[in-house]
Model the fold of this input.
Amino acid sequence: MNTKVHCYPKAIILQGVYFKLRFTLSYRDVEEIMKMRGIEIDHATIQCWVFKFAPVIELQMKKRKSRLGISWRMDETYIKVKGLRCYLYRAVDKSGNTVDFLLTRRRQRMSAQSFLIKEVNNCRPRVINNRQKRLEHQRNESLQQELFFEY
Done:
């Protein structure tokens, strides 16, 4: 990440880009936060930084992202959260790392499928195992065919 052409140090540039990307702030909000820290900067400058450095930061983050296994296990269970029954969908790889989870108040097939498709787009596993009943197996066959996986 080359910041030599810019008037500000690398730490300040990264701080401004971090505030914009991490929190749902406008460029003017980021400008105000930077002013509170003693840095006079225009919101248009922050916007230029975000356009220039966000793709570079994204590539670096993808390189540092932990590798997931090629075999996943999908679990669906219900738990109580603050006295309310909720459904927990969880994807776990072979070494026990949680790939992602989804917590919903109602059992919804479409939300579970969209959750799974989103995770598959991030990292494509070779096999997805679902330790559910036989009926669930038939329901998941259509999803397996959609995603072109072995079952």
